[in-house]
Design a protein that fits this description.
Layout lengths: L3 E5 L10 H7 L16 E8 L5 H8 L2 E7 L2 E8 L2 E9 L2 E4 H9 L5 E6 L2 H4 L2 H6 L1 E5 L8 H9 L4 E8 L2 E8 L2 E7 L9 H8 L6
Antiparallel strand pairs: 1-8, 1-9, 2-7, 3-4, 3-7, 4-5, 5-6, 9-10, 10-11
Length: 209
Amino acid sequence: ASRMSALCPPPGRGWCRHARILLSMGGESGRGHSLPLLPAGSLLFEHLPARAIVLDALAPAVGNGVITVTDGDRTGVLVIRDGGVSDAVSIDDGSRSSGDVALALIGGWTSASMSACRWNDPAMSLLEPLIHGETCYEDLRLKWTGWPQLLEDLRARDGTFVVELFTPIGRGVTVIRAGKQVATYTEAHPSVGDPDLIDVLAAGGTGSV
């Protein structure tokens, strides 16, 4: 099933107030444990066996960017800043871990594969809400939602929101920060582009929000 979810920073990082959307649009509040679609960067490699990778040697080659790790249904992201691992997030069986705990868990995924990308500074600035955001609401049907009004509502709020849209014709993300859509990208257009990229997906009216 297609869906849309909105992420906002966890408590202590500008916790969001979402009652107005839930009351007016019938959404369900909850705490999601999946990671949103990440923007494209400069791909170094993809889907190499993790056991063949020497992380201490790879991180300096990445410089700034992300290493994504997959092992079946388990997913992890290693954040690389200035040639070193600065953060990590893992998702395993619906459980989210971060920091050193996540790094240790990912290190135990013996059958995992890794992909690595370099990111520019604007993309790196998106990482905090992308990987540490808590779900404000999810599975709100697109056909029940006034898409322009939803974005307008989020732009009127303080903080940062990551809105991810799943539809039959593709998946997309738009990031709203301080009242502006600062980054938008889709599976078909994975580099950060114009806000209307995600509007095209929403225009079909099919999905869940």
